[in-house]
């Protein structure tokens, strides 16, 4: 934990915390986080969601937004498309700045929120805890690959942040640790494992892939899907029943044990998936 100039939590979690306030910031650049042909509304949905998801991963509630945007000449930007994604999450856009760019669209969003009764962190997982995903993952990667192959599909930009679950976990304190899935389950689970000093084990037999239509190893495919904005969190065994009653859509996918690293437990043995994730490039 960092205590620097009134900052309770700084670098190393999904958002910074000072006093009762949570702050998250993301930058997205054309060619890295979205394609040139992606609709502007979809791009705005994605970056606002990424920031709101960071606040949710801390158990907080997003309230205010700031926007910085650099727009290339000839790019069609609709003011309504800027505001809509903020309104969707009940976030008030309170300021920002716009400028021009030579050839690429650049968007930066800051979300300011308030903490709940409990602040969720990447540290806090303990041996014996159970690992949950807020929803199945992998569909974002499936749709992204279709887009990169030339398909006119952008629905993966419209994935929603888990605001209700984040609020629930922040109010109840049922999660011992939490992170949002932006870099892939394996890589994001490794952040919890490192910060908590534990080993995270994902059970292949529990990991949902029935919703996917991919050839080959569907589990490994899903583990490498990024920008899902699902919540990956741990729960003490004594709290499993309450969690599953309050959040019935959450999916149990593994367990925590002593040690280090992140592993996929398969019939033929364990596979290290600590680096299994998504590279941000379009």
TrEMBL record:
Pathway: Cofactor biosynthesis; thiamine diphosphate biosynthesis; thiamine diphosphate from thiamine phosphate: step 1/1. It is an enzyme of class 2 (transferase). Mg(2+) 3 binds at residues 14, 54, 180. GO terms for biological process: thiamine biosynthetic process; thiamine diphosphate biosynthetic process. ATP binds at residues 96-97, 122, 182. Mg(2+) 4 binds at residues 14, 54. Mg(2+) 2 binds at residues 26, 54. Substrate binds at residues 33, 227, 278. Residues 12-114 form the PurM-like N-terminal domain. Gene3D superfamilies: PurM-like C-terminal domain (3.90.650.10), PurM-like, N-terminal domain (3.30.1330.10). It catalyses: thiamine phosphate + ATP = thiamine diphosphate + ADP. HAMAP family: TMP_kinase (MF_02128). Catalyzes the ATP-dependent phosphorylation of thiamine-monophosphate (TMP) to form thiamine-pyrophosphate (TPP), the active form of vitamin B1. Reaction mechanism of ThiL seems to utilize a direct, inline transfer of the gamma-phosphate of ATP to TMP rather than a phosphorylated enzyme intermediate. This is Thiamine-monophosphate kinase. It comes from Denitrovibrio acetiphilus (strain DSM 12809 / NBRC 114555 / N2460).
């Amino acid at each position: 934990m960092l205590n620097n100039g009134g900052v309770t939590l700084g670098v190393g979690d999904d958002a910074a915390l000072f006093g009762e306030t949570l702050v998250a910031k993301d930058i997205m650049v054309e060619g890295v986080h979205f394609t040139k042909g992606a609709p502007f509304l979809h791009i705005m949905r994605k970056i606002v969601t990424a920031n709101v998801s960071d606040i949710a991963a801390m158990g907080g509630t997003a309230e205010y937004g700031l926007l910085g945007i650099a727009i290339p000449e000839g790019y069609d930007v609709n003011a309504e498309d800027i505001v809509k994604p903020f309104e969707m999450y009940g976030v008030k856009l309170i300021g920002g700045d716009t400028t021009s760019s030579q050839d690429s669209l650049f968007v930066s969003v800051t979300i300011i929120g308030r903490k709940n009764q409990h602040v969720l962190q990447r540290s806090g997982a303990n041996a014996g805890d159970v690992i949950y995903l807020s929803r199945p993952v992998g569909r974002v990667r499936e749709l992204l690959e279709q887009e990169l192959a030339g398909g006119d599909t952008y629905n993966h930009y419209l994935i929603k942040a888990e605001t209700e679950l984040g609020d629930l976990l922040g109010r109840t304190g049922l999660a011992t640790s939490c992170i949002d899935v932006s870099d892939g389950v394996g890589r994001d689970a490794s952040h919890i494992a490192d910060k908590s000093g534990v080993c995270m084990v994902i059970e292949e037999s529990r990991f949902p892939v029935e919703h996917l239509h991919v050839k080959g190893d569907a589990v490994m495919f899903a583990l490498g899907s990024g920008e899902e904005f699902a919540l990956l969190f741990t729960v003490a065994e004594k709290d499993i029943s309450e969690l599953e009653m309050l959040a019935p859509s959450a999916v149990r996918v593994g367990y925590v044990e002593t040690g280090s690293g992140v592993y996929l437990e398969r019939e033929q043995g364990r596979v290290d998936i600590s680096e299994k994730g998504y590279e941000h490039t379009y």
